[in-house]
Design brief:
Oligomer: single chain
Number of strands: 34
Largest sheet: 6 strands, antiparallel
Strand content: 35-45%
Distance between the termini: 63 Å
Shape: flat
Length: 457
Amino acid sequence: MKKNICLFIISALLAQQLLAQQQFIHTVTKENINCNYRCSVIDIPELNKNPNAILFANLVEGRGTNPDRHPIGAYYMYLNKWSIFNLDGSGMVEGAKYSVEYYTNPGKDQFVCSITERISQTGVYYIDREGLDDNPNAKVRIFPTSSPTMGALFNPFSVKAEYNKDYRKWYIANVNGQPLTVPQTSFNIAFDRGSVATNTNTTKDPNGNIQTPAPVIPTTTNANTNKDLNGNIQTPVTNNGAGGNCNCPKSLPPEGDAGGDLAGTYPSPWVVKLQGRVLSGKSPDIGQALRWNGTMWESARGFEPYAISFKQTSDQELNIPNMEKVVIIGLDSKSFILKQYSDIVFYTTMLANVPINSNSTIVTELVTVGFNVEIYNSFNQVVARASNSSVIGAGFQTMVAVGHASLPPGTYKTSVKLGKGQLPVKVYADIKISNANSENWQGGEMIIEVFPQNDYY
């Protein structure tokens, strides 16, 4: 019987270890550097082909190490392996060592938090998780990880997790105080829920000495039960309908002057502020919403959609020796500003053909060519992307690439480049075709439709 109990205990411990974290020291070597020198690949059988694993890493400093002091994150890369990634884009340093802790089968207290919703106006992101809400005693660890949907898209700074006692929630914030501005980024989070305090002085006197027997709390009775205010017995007993024997109202309203975001007196105060900010007394019109104008909350119409457009300014040709890539003048490196959190849809069109060769001969061959459109944020990170690949011949053909994204307020920049081809390909600005109809053909253009979100916070 004892042998069976021991076997059961050993099996239970092994099962717990499978769910628990494991640790090792990872050393950066020439052989495991990848991702254009920005990551160092981890080769652990339990982590390979396991995108659901949760990783945490810290730089090891001391004798025999080559310190690489950069903000780091975990990146599940194209080899179906995890890696340590320098968030600021710097190259990995050979000889750097990292202490790595990982969970191959995360439990409910280890999870990936993806910032897919809107970031608060203070630039922090509040975590919504059972076990963390209303729990200031939790011990929380946080580590950047690659987005399950966007890949190597990271917040470029070191982050921390702190508790807001007013909101009773934990939140993610940059250590340097900069706002979180990169949507779709993700973080590994593991937490210990902490312990619940108990009173160890039960049955003890004020000096901590055990009382024997334990003190008994005396009980009293009301001698005036079933009597009126003058002490006379009421027959029958008045009952207030809630099981009591008094004529008190079921609830008592506050009295006196109202405070905080309220003005006037109870029981009929009125709202004059929201979260300490003044509320305009102007009556709203139909269709208006409440909006902060920088001074007070006021009724106003929501933000209307609008469009931003850029035009290709000159004809360009993908030709020897520039067969790999051509930057489209007028569409590339164009900046635009979003003043509030917005959804955008961007359309990029290119008018292209295989031009007549130097012998004035029309080329009958076809060539596959494409172009890439990217949008960068102020940290020079790609936050949106679209591409097109088309078969082009001697006749004019329009290529179209469409993309969309949800972006926070900020300054953004475009990147539009014509891709690789086997034959010369020409793309045009607006041109006029010399035919019977003298047609005007629209050349390269990028239109960005902006749909501001009226309910951002």
